[in-house]
Design brief:
The complex is a heterodimer. Chain A is 26% helix and 34% strand. Chain A is of the alpha+beta class. The chains are: A alpha+beta, B mainly alpha.
Amino acid sequence: MTAENNQKMIFLSGKYVNLVGLTEDDALNSDWFSWFNDPDTTRFMQKGYFPNTAQQQLDFYRQHIVGNPSKLQLGIVASGENTLVGIISLNNIDHLNQKAEISMIIGNANFRQMRYTVEAMKLIIEHGFNILNLHKIYGGTLSKDWADLLCKTLTFTPEGKLRQDIYKSGTFYDVHMVAVLRDEYKTQPA
Amino acid sequence: MSIVLKTVAEQLQIPIESLTNDSSPENLKNWDSLATIRIAMALEMSESISFTTEELVKFSSISAINEILSTKK
């Protein structure tokens, strides 16, 4: 992990994005907390039910991220820049069964493009398999397009759907479950 | 009519007349990574081809997609 002056601490480095360690300053002084108040950003997430504040983001950071061996949460920063544009996580890291759940939010809409999305996912997936020794990485999404993206670009496989599992904006949505095993994961240049 | 223009217009739900070869995720608000997947899958279906991840990452404009598509034929 490297850091200079006020530069973010780069933990995983790619061609288009870097994944950086998060700090209290990110919770208080970046746009991070506000992304969860934006209906467009949270339209496929179980977020946006109650307002989120910088103080709540700081509390979350202290209670759920710092020193938590079950969660790896990193900031997404475009290469050559120093501003958070999103967050990516391996959640519910289960060291016994060697699996974890992946999630991501790109709060800055200018960076919701394929190269940033795929590379951020690729970096944390490869860290999960190669460094954390995970056997399986899985995820669930309300969006069929998101499930298709994971399957098409990162060799995930559909594992079925949880029917009408999540209530959002007046509708019960199916949750599309996808997963990739370490042996199935195929590295492709991004 | 270009199959790429038609597909992008359909998937972004915008008039085809509003698109040019320079139209891209940079200048079209609705063209995010999820739209790119829909565009790619629609082209794969209609053209009976398959795109790699590397090619999908390079879906950076209408002209870029045309260029990638031309290598498939």
